[in-house]
Structures are given as structure tokens and as C-alpha cells.
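Ticket reopened. Same input as before:
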Amino acid sequence: MATLINQNQDGPKLPRWRRVINWLGRWPGQRDRRAVEDLLKHVHACQERGQGASAESAAGAIGWSARRAVKVIASVEALGLIRSTSKGLELTDGGTQLAVSVIRAHRLWERYLADEAGMPLTQVHAEANRREHDREGGRVDRLDAALGYPQSDPHGDPIPRADGRLAEFAGTPLMSWSSGRPARITHIEDEPASVFDQIVATGLMPGQVITVEGSTPEGLRVAFNGRKSVLAPVIAANVFVQAVPQDAAPAPARSLSSLEQGGEAVIRGFDQGLRGFHRRRLLDLGLTPGTPIRAERVSMFRDPRAYRVRGSLVALRREQADRVHIEEGSPSPSAQTGATS
Amino acid sequence: MKLDGYTPRPVADLLDQAEEARRALGEGFRDRVVESIYKDATEIAGRSVEYGERRRVDLDLLVDKVVLSPIFGLPLMIALLGLIFWATIIGANYPSQMLATGLFWVEAQGTLLFDYLGAPWWLTGFIWHGIYRGLAWVIAVMLPPMMIFFPCFTILEDLGYLPRVAFNLDWLFKKSGGHGKQALTMSMGFGCNAAGVIACRVIDSPRERLIAILTNNFVPCNGRYPTLILIAVLFVAAGFSPTAASAVAAGTVLTIVVLGVITTLIVSAALSRTVLKGEASAFTLELPSYRRPSIARIIYTSLIDRTIFVLMRAVMTAIPAGAVIWLLGNITAGGTPLATHVSDFLEPFAYQFGLDGVIILAYIIAIPANEIVVPTILMIYLGEGMMTEDISQDSLRQVLVEQHGWTMLTAVNLMLFSLLHNPCATTIITMWKETRSLRWTTLGAVGPLVIAFGVCFVVAQAARLLGWG
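Engineering reply: fixed in the latest deploy. New output:
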């Protein structure tokens, strides 16, 4: 990529002193490349949504001044990665290829940061934005393999494959979903960040099953995770869902942390948000669905608590226990339903 | 290429097929694999394992009721830790003296041998009074406490008590962004910070592990107790009756230890909110059944794995330190030894921090091993060409207070500095080995130093403003 930019700059032969001045006043190469990739990503996102990208939309989305946006667009056009059409900016084949490779790196990093590094969902997007530009030496493919070839990023967006194939974005806006039909959240838009933070705060997560119960002037009345709440239109508009078979919609689950001292229950499954390292850890400790569990001890600060599982005593913090779903009843070794709710 | 009846398919096809399979499996298949493994294991166990009368579990429950009790848990923990400290300090005292006597006797014989062979005085001095004496000092001060502390610690570990400490204290560490097991690595640090840093391997999430590594230094190790105890006895406890004095001295050291723990929590919180940003991540901790400790294992782990290992590294770093100290004490310029020149030069700087030039110099020399701080200070003050500690407490106090103007402020700041300053070279090397990162190692070495100077500066300036010290 850097070489492409240099070729562009070498275009017409300038006098030596001009070249020195240009060189001094130039953005460092790294910044150049980031700008190009950020722009390509933006145009790609607009195309996916069927909107036209423009200098204004790029400036707004990436946080550039209008002047800088125009400058970057001009240089990227000169590179042959985008072209201006009547409907706005459009990616060329080369541009699409590069954009998809950046998106692939971005979404894989998000997956890694959320699952393995345990970074809060509200922070992964910004950090992935920093890391997506370094794709030297098959690093992204190694990350993909290490993560077990994940299909989607933590927001539910499909991750492009190594050969550049990108699964179709599947989902209907929650706003237009009919009442009473359970739906699985496929995607939560991660931009703008302020709205995304609010969505995360309400406890919504890709993979969750949600039911719209009706709409009011304040927003949508929904039920998820055994809770009822009202989503403001600005939030609901950023949540995308897909149909689930009626019988797959699970009954409301209780979390392990709500189990009273000395109480017994059976593990039903884990929260969708519990993934990667943390999920493996709990499974390795034997907290598999169908296993009986008893809340046995509580620490002097009320947290963590110790649970008896398979004869051994395991301490979990409240955050972990929150994500383990339990149900009353006898152990059922046949309850091999995998991830529920 | 074509073999009979076999048509190789293009690689792309195979990859496509793999991709299909992956998609069909879905992301939950790893869960299902673990589940089926557990299911099989449960079945096999159900068929072949018979449970007898489980009276041991009842005993476990009973012990846990006390150990993990909201009321008795914490006092019991402090009492146990206090007991180990007490046993270490008291128990190591006599062997330390014996070891010192023995090792210094060897030094005397070595000196005689060199004299007999007609070696020049500087060679004798450099080899025996410099390198050998530094070595002897470190071994004498370090070995006995470690041989008591580490086995005690290993017994608690083997019993299954330590995970319970982590369980009890986890909330505190969670609030500061760390892991409950940091309580264990911290306790290990009381024995030796280098061993504490290695112990951080038990923390399985990288972020929390780094926090534990970087803050381990804030609990004083065996090498720093002698300094703390000596100053506590000489200054803080001096005004009390002999019976009360030892209690006051012990209380002072305990206060410093508590300060260290508080600093650990504060610095952990600061790290987890700045350079090591992130949420307190997964905490899972197994609380194993109580076991009868195995003697062989205790001896092996505590003596071979820990004591010998730490001692060897300390010895490697003590040798150059001993050499430097001897050179500074014996190379003279204008009739005064180099050490005096350097400490005079450092004096105005040190004054701002409520310390003096000699203390700073001693800490610079003692970077390899904190055990030699007090001997070095005394060497310079007494104007001898070699480290010494062979002096009574009364005359020592006299030397420090009357001849060199030490005040309570100097004593307090020396203790604070000793608690907070940079880790010793052994620990720094260990940090590097554990993190393989120059950046974190630098932070771990320089960060505490900055904190130490900062705290001493504030204390000194505040004290002087109030007309004290």
C-alpha cells in the first residue's frame, strides 16, 4: 500500500526543492495508509447500506475536516481504488478487495479483544480501529486460525473469509419486526459509539432472543433474558434481528448469581456474551449444561461466591455467575443443548 | 497428475468443503465437545468409582466454615501471616549470626592465607573484603529467613489454604482491577520478590498477571526486613521500655507492611485504569479439598525450587556489588574515599527527600541485593574500607543521630524508601524473564523508584513545613 502511495506522489517530475518541501510537509506514511483504509472502509459500509458515500459523509464518519476528506478522496481516486459516480463514491474492484481485507482484520481483532482479552464491548471497536492497519506477514490469517475461524464479530457482523468472500448481511431492523414473534439479534450497529454504549448498557447482545411486545410513543416494549424493557427508537433502529423457530425460544432463565446461599439448581447454559477464554474456562471446570450446582460459601466481601460442582468447590465472581443460566430441577445428563438463550 | 481411479480434487474445493463444515457445525461445537467429554467421564466414573463414607468432606466443610467465615477469615489470615513473619524473623536471627560468624571466619583465614602468600594488600582487600564479604553478607542475611519462610509458605500452599486467602481477598483486588490470586503472589513476595514474580504464573489472564508482576515489589522481602527492623528498633522503639520496645518495633514493621499492601492496591488500580486498561476479567478459582502436606514435596519445592534458585541469582548479583563497595571505600582522592565524595555530591539532592547522600549511595550500590544497604551505610559512616555491622545498638544510634544528623524524618523516609523503591536486580531480571518485554520491565523497575522519591519528597517537605525533622 505504501508503495502505491509513493507511486502517486512520484507522478510528475518536480524540481528537487519542491520534492524536499513536499516530503517534509507530508503526513508520515503510516497516517497516509490509515487515511486511505479508513476511507475505503467508510465507502464499503455505505455501499452495504445502499447509501451513497461522499466527502461530507466520510468527514462526518471518520472525523476529518471537509478539506482533508476531499484531499484524501482525491488521492485515493488517483490510486484507482474508488471512483466518483452520480450516486456518490464507489469502490473499484481493487478498492473492494482492500476494504474487505481491512474489515476482515477489524472484525477478527474485535472478536479477539472481546473473547480472549476480555475487553468491554464498548472499547473493542476503537482498539480494533487501531490494530486493523497492521496486516503484515499473514498475521490476520494466523489470528483467524487461533480464534477458530469465527463467523461473526462481537456485534454480529459477518467476518470476511481469507479469500475475500463476505457473507450477506442478514437481518431486519427491530423497528419493523412484528410483535409477538421471537427474534434472534443478529447485529448491533457499533457506530455511533454513544448509541452503542447505551445498547450495551441495556444488556442487549448479538445472539440473544428478543420478543417485541408492542410499541409506545417512547419506543418498543420488548422482552429479553427474562426481563422487560422499553427501547428508545434511536436504540431499536440500531438493532437487527432474524427469525427463530418458535420452539427454540427458551423460557426466561435465572442467572447463577441469583441462587440463594445453600440453594441448588441445574446449569442450563451460558450467556451468549460469555465467549472465548472465559467460556472455555468454565466448561473446563465442569460447568456443563445439565450439571447440578449448589451455592455453598460467600466471601467476606459478599463477592466472589463458592459453588459446589461435581464434588469440587469453585469460586466465581458475580460477573461470571451472572452469565451462567440455571434452572430448577433434577440433573439431566441428556440436556446437551449447547448454548442457550 | 492422475492415478488409477483417483482424481485429486483442487485444494480450493477442499477448503470450500472445510468452510461448509465449519458453518454447519456452528460456533457452539466446542461447547458440545467439552460436554460430551464430561458426559463420558461422568458415565465412566459412575460405573467404576465407589464412594465410601465421606467423613473427610464434613471435616472440610467445618474448616471452611472458619477459614472462609466473614468474621474469622480475615483475622485468621493476618494471624497466620504474622506467625510466619515472627517465626522467620526470630528463627532466622540465630542461624544468621552463626552463618555470619562462620563465613567471616573463612574471610579471616583467606586474608591470612593471602598475606602469607605475599599478595598485595589491594588484592586481598578486593577479593576477600570486597567480593567475598558481599557474598557472605547476602548469604548470611538471606538464607536462614528463606529456609524458614518458604517451607512455612509451602505448607500453607500444600494444605490448600492459600486459594482460600485468594477467595477471601478477591473483592479487594477486583476493585483494583487485579486478580484474587495476586494475594498469593504478594504473600510469596514477602519471602522474595523474585520468587513472587515467578509465582505470578498462577494468574492465567495476561493483564492481571502483569499487574501482579509490576506491583509485587511493594511488599517488603526478606532482604529488606533487616533494614526495616533495625530502623524500627533504633528510632521508633527507642523511647520505650525494653519490654514494650520489641512490640513497638514489630508494630512499626507491620505498619510498613500494611502500607505496602495498600500501595499495591492503589498502584494496581492506577495501572488497570491507565496502561493496562481493561475490565477485571474472568475469575475462576478452585478451592481444593484440604490435604495432608507431603513432606518430600515441601522440602523439594521450598528448598530446591525456591530457596536455592533465589539464592543463586542473588549470589550472582552480590559479587559485583561487593566489588564496587570495596572499590568505593578504598580508592581515595584527596585523602577521602570515593564513597565519601559521591555521597557528599548526592547530599543536596538527597536532602530534598528527607534522606542523606550516604543512604542514596547505599541504595544505588545495593540495586543488586537489598540485603547490603545497612552494612554499606555503616561502612561509609564509620569510614572503614569494608562493610560492617559489628557494632552495638547504642553506639550505632549515636553514630547516626549525633555524628550524621539522622532524625525521625530520616528514619521514616528510609523505611518508606526501602518499602517503595525499585526492585533488586534479581527481581528485575526475573521480571524480564517472565514478561520478555523491555517495556514492562522498565516500568516495573522505574515506576516504583519514581513513587518512592515522590512519597519521600512529599513527606519530607510536609514535615519540614510543620517544623518537624
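The longest strand of chain A covers residues 209-216. DSSP finds twelve helices and 14 strands in chain A. Please confirm and we'll close it.
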